[in-house]
Amino acid sequence: MTKADIWGTYESRLLRVSSHIYEHLDEELDSDRLAEVACMSPYHWHRIYRAMHGETLAATVKRLRLQRAAAELAASDRSVSLIARRCGYPNLQSFNRIFKAAYGLPPARYRKEGSHQTFQMVHEKEDRVMYDVTLRTSDETPVIGVAHRGAYMEIGKAFEQLFGTLFSRNLADPAARMLAIYYSDPESVAESELRSLACVTNGGRAAVDPPLQSAMVEGGECAVLLHKGPYADMRFAYRWLYGEWLRKSGRDVRDAPVFEIYLNNPRQVPPTELLTEICLPLKPVAST
């Protein structure tokens, strides 16, 4: 068996583990059981997982559970105790402490005072400037990615598959930028039908095979909003960008999907320090 065959086997096995984690976040994720899912020795598979994903299995599970908890706190009325249990923390005090360490506020305060509140529509203060938006023109950009269908907050599953595949095929480029293209409007399309692409820039135009696919981010002018904070807050930033900035800007949107550029990595910085550029394609200004 060649080196490529060996890493290809690791790729398919660890992708099964990633899928299992995403589909069973509510359950006890026993490491021995996950080793069985991977069909790998429990003595070695943790090291291989870390090598391919850049973090330990325990760190992945903790990060994904807290990310989902933040989304539910921001967008649902589920009780904090229920959200804690869904994250595997029957002890509410433990959940409060761990959530605060990651997000800067305990869960109840995060729901009331978190950065997602910044973007809530405040009708009595319509002239309030919430965030600066800059205009930027860029060339078309080739990307390589993995398609995702379903809730945008779950696109992390496609990113796990993308990076695991790139690593196993020796296609990972440290200089590549991480992006996501969002083809559907979550306000008007059923969650199960939402389409997106988790991707990285492909300056070398590497040849791709499934599950990877090539795409192009169209060049042109974009309105760029820099968002700082958890991904769970992003939908409120979108509402402000479309509902306030675009309405008052006098600009028209181009027939191209919105995309996000991720300036840092959720594996390396806390959620409160995540930096994301939301890029809204604009039509050229009509000449007079």
TrEMBL record:
Domain of life the protein comes from: Bacteria
Protein name: AraC family transcriptional regulator
Keyword terms, alphabetized: DNA-binding, Transcription, Transcription regulation
Matches recorded under SUPFAM superfamilies: Homeodomain-like, Probable bacterial effector-binding domain
HTH araC/xylS-type domain location: 15-113
Signal peptide: none
